[in-house]
Amino acid sequence: MSAKVLFVCLGNICRSPIAEGIFVHLVRERGLDGRYLADSAGTGNWHSGEPPDPRAIAVAKKRGVSLPSLCRQVDKSDFQEFDLILAMDRNNQKDLNAICPAHLRSKIRLIRDFDTARERGTDVPDPYYGGPYEFDTVYEMLNRCCADLLEKMESGSLVTGDATAP
Length: 166
Ligand code: 4NP
Hints:
The protein contains five helices and four strands, in the order βαβααβαβα. The chain has about 170 residues and is α/β, with parallel strands linked by helices.
């Protein structure tokens, strides 16, 4: 059975599709196809059905990573469907917690909990109003987080759905 991981941000056109693309890329690179299923969603619905922001597509393409998924809003069924839900920032986490049934809340984690550098606090900053530098910074941050997340899931040190810190 594959582990299902959902990446969540506000708009689902910048941070979470980049995280999804990186995670899928790392899974493929490590020969782990079939072991993981990844998706992304937004707490907001302004961009539903749209592809990711062109700047997100560009920053990923530079590293050979494609971002094929289309924007969608988080659905209540996601809390049942996914084993692990990674919020990009504390606002996303708060919004998710507000609509998640209490017994499933331990599935929701901050992705920066998996940042091995952690030099910029606990949020992935929203690059939407930034430029290429902000998108590059976010990409590198998410690359560290996704690599650590996958390593912890593979080693069994992260029990999905468990609220204990990594
Ligand atoms: P994201 O960035 O949450 O990283 O996808 C945003 C994209 C769009 C908007 C906000 C944040 N928006 O307000 O349209």
